[in-house]
Amino acid sequence: MPPASDYRDHGLEFPPEFVIGSATASYQIEGAAREDGRGPSIWDTFSHTPGKVWNGDTGDVADDHYHRWESDLDLMAELGLQSYRFSIAWPRIQPGGKGAINPAGVAFYSRLVDGLLERGIRPIATLYHWDLPQELEDAGGWPARDTAYRFAEYAARTAEALGDRVHTWTTLNEPWCSAYLGYGSGAHAPGRTDGAAALAAVHHLNLAHGLAVQELRREASNDPDVSITLNFHVIRGDDDTSPEAKRRIDALANRAFTHPILRGEYPADLLEDTAGVTDWSFVRAGDLAEINQPIDVLGVNYYSTVTVRMWDGVSPRSTNDGHKDMGGSPWPGSRDVEFLPQAGPYTAMGWNIAPDGLEELLLSLKEQFPQQPLLITENGAAFDDVVTVTDAGKRVHDDERVDYLVRHFAAAHRAMQQGVDLRGYQVWSLLDNFEWGYGYSKRFGIVRVDYDTQERILKDSALWLRELIATRRLPASPLAER
Ligand code: IFM
User: Fold this and answer.
1) Which of 258-262, 388-392, 446-450 has the lowest mean pLDDT?
2) What angle do CA 71, 77, 82 make, to 5 degrees?
């Protein structure tokens, strides 16, 4: 084990009740795709379809976490994590997405939760991080209403099994991606390119969330915190047409979720902007009341910003919307919004590094939803790491990632100083993993994974996080003195 970092103390202090941990997701790390009764998910199908994922990578093996969960838990304990956010693979619990549970699947997560608790780490469980059972997609997927009811049933069965021990439940991770990338642009599984289907998926994901919240409250016996995680778009632009473009993207990306969930309504401008795509008749009487359930915390995922203006229809169109275009649009009804290249620096994803965007986002959520506690459920960065072999063993001096984290924790701290009720911070990701369409080409981990040997190497960012958690003070960036 390398020594703790010697970065100069930056000094910002985080209170003990501010829960600092790290996050992963089932398909990205587990592997064991066909073991112990797990059924196929849409990501198995998609990743095995030629041309969909970089290099033909799949989650078949991933980080082999399904077999290495115990040593991975020891790693978390070594880092002193206060919490661990993981996701449960629906097709392990219900291989076909409905009916009887698969005992082996439940047993895996039960062992994981017990292992976390034994090590004093708070379990934060996400019910859906994109691995929809393939059978449900074959029956219509998220554009079909029935999927929301199937999800509620899965939530109930899972809470029956684990609802005495999980501290925080998250219903859905980033429904924006499930709906718009899965059914609009086709960049994510199941790879459909149909704007109307994407908007129906938005509604059925919202409905699934609301129904699941009710099941979790009914079935869990330990009075858990219940949440949803959204990937907010922080939208910028200083062109004359930017205000209109911002309004449109804010409606599709942010308010399409926050307003039904936290206010019980769809924004009128969203319905108007998308009227040429769908009439929203899939929203039935009573749905909004089902969706609008109180949640204990709102999960916030933040990585970077977007910059927009309206396309004039003549100039060559900028296609830099930060999302791979696979033939469809992730913005139904607003294809005429143009996403502009942004000022750097950038991560290896090509995403701009903008910590002030996180502060702005947290303040804006406080203003819009003053009573709603917040939790950062994901923030982190991919960089092209280099392994250095020293006498003390293998090291990864990922200074840029540490710098990114220092700046974003500092931004969160500034927001807290301004009154934001922020309960914690989960760094994405604990382990390098399967980065969806980018396969294994992008490394977000604070722990490096050698995909040939499955060796784990603590990067400097992991040591930095360990120091932050142990001291409660933000260690300075190694780049600060350069
Ligand atoms: O890896 C993903 C994660 O699954 C969802 N949020 C964004 C991360 C980085 O792209």
Assistant:
1) 388-392
2) 135
